[in-house]
Amino acid sequence: MKQMPIDDNILNGVHGFTDEAHYVQPEEPVRTKLEWFQDQKLGLMMHFGPYAQLGIMESWGLSDYDAHWSREGIDWAKGGKEFREKYFALNRSFYPICMQPQQWAETAADSGFKYLIFTTKHHDGFCLWDTQQTDYKTTAPSCPFHKNPNADIVKSVFRAFRAKGLGIGAYFSKPDWHSRYYWTPGMEHSEETWRNPSYDVYEYPWIWEQFVQFTHRQMLELIGEYGKVDILWLDGGQVNPKIGLDIRLHEIVPKLREIQPELIVADRTVGGAYENYVTPELTIPEKPMNIPWESCLTMGSSFAYRYDDTYKSAEKIVHLLIEIICKGGNLALNIAPEPTGRLPRPALEQLKSLGSWMKTYGEAVYGTRICAPYKTSQAAFVQKNGVIYAFVLAQEGVFAEKILLQVSDIRRVSAVADGKEIPFEAGVQGITIDRQNLPSDSAVPSVSVLRLER
């Protein structure tokens, strides 16, 4: 039996990313839509599913190949078979009774987010929309949430976020470990499960064809029946033609774009015509990239909800955002709802401060692009409409006595917060500002935001 190799782009559930040299520029109108995407800068990612009930990692524990890192802390199953039986049965108790999509959307808008990336289904195959391709979904009688007005979670969430003017991204897992066409009963290649199909697609192409058609029909549902979708965010980089697992995006994406011509597709790690932007995961590239990209980072310690989790402070998030935008990217910040559907209170407290900061300094964030010198030890730089914005950065909580900003031909410096003019000295290396003249901010005291005009 010829087995499919494991994709080297995935390590412990974390995907690598395509480098700038291998990026393929899409055609219009997607190319213009990517300008919109690059203007947004801050997106909200939400991983939500039955795994939230137990506070465990999403999906990955179902794969025996990945058990050594993904089943940490699991004491309710003796082995992989029992784990899968209990995990797949979580749909029978999934009941986020306190979920209020309008509050999610209002919180997102008030916090400065401009678009959403929401898990319509993860690798476990549990669908948060009323798909007609499987009964493993929130609207099925087997799920107690099916009688709730928000049972079609995707519909309710997308509608609420659109009403607040936010862009919509549909996270969709290409692998589906619940589908009988992916992990086919009786067709296991070994006693252990892994990320890839349970059968050899070269020996059983008709089974793989069933999975391809199943996947195409689900994508058509999401793009054709759930209103305007800006981004189709495809996870599961091991499903790609390079290792023999081809779901034929070249067939389905044109059909999707007949419905929504500007649809951005992010076929993560695969490269080529359908990876319209690159998605570094849990990392930030070392250098600026002149292509559309987005770092997906977590506000807590995991993409999935965890009990008693710790959350990044607003100050930490602002510093991450600054590093990302000065390198040309967007930040997709993941916040996982609690099992009840509420957003965690510690996260909400930090989001309130983040929103306050974004309201004051959004001018220096949204719609900007990279410019030299990008980032130095003292500051990070972006530009928009001929204006340079400098984020002056404290080191270990203290600003340098003299701030050197390595930009030339500056005629005026002012504070973004109130427009107050800031005195400076021009020199060969750039301009110098005294620490005592830096504007301060109580929400994020370690960053001072300046407007530089030529």
Give average pLDDT, whole number.
95
The gross shape turns out to be globular
- β-strand amount: 15-25%
Tell me about the largest β-sheet: 7 strands, parallel
Summarize the helix and strand pattern as letters: EEHEHHHEHEHEHEEHEHEEEEEEEE
Distance between the termini: 67 Å
Instruction: Give the number of helices.
Output: 9
Taking Cα atoms only, what radius of gyration do you get, to the nearest Å?
A: 23 Å
Annotation, overall tally of beta strands: 17
List low-pLDDT spans. none
Level of helix content?
Answer: 10-25%
Structural class category: alpha/beta
Main-sheet strand order equals: 7-6-5-4-3-9-8
Question: SSE layout and pairings?
Answer:
Blueprint lengths: L9 E2 L2 E2 L14 H11 L1 E5 L20 H4 L9 H9 L12 H10 L4 E7 L31 H11 L3 E7 L31 H21 L5 E5 L13 H11 L4 E4 L26 E5 L15 H12 L4 E5 L10 H17 L7 E7 L3 E6 L2 E7 L8 E4 L6 E4 L9 E2 L4 E4 L12 E7 L1
Parallel strand pairs: 3-4, 3-9, 4-5, 5-6, 6-7, 8-9
Antiparallel strand pairs: 1-2, 10-11, 11-12, 12-17, 13-16, 14-17, 15-16
Helix pairs in contact: 4-5, 4-9, 6-7, 8-9
